[in-house]
Design brief:
3 helices; acyl carrier activity; fatty acid biosynthesis; lipid metabolism; 75 residues; fatty acid metabolism; Non-ribosomal Peptide Synthetase Peptidyl Carrier Protein, Chain A; mainly alpha
């Protein structure tokens, strides 16, 4: 459920086919997102899940799985 929502957000922001976004996708290397795109996506994820992501955690997010696990541990 969390993964599906994140995948939809990323797809809508980037135009990437959501079928090409998986848990092991590297945010920078595989999805080719820059820091501004990542910030925008994480801001939308915060709104979607009614959470606040500590900005220090942004650098810890290497894969989609990292984001999913952070949210699972937060909500």
């Amino acid at each position: 459920m969390i993964f599906e929502k994140i995948r939809k957000i990323i797809s809508s922001h980037t135009g990437l086919d959501k079928n090409n976004i998986n848990l092991d996708s590297n945010i920078v290397d595989d999805l080719e997102l820059d820091s501004i795109e990542i910030f925008d996506i994480l801001s939308e994820i915060e709104g979607e899940f009614s959470i606040e992501i500590d900005e220090d955690s942004y650098e810890d997010f290497k894969t989609i799985k990292d984001i999913v696990e952070y949210i699972e541990n937060t909500i």
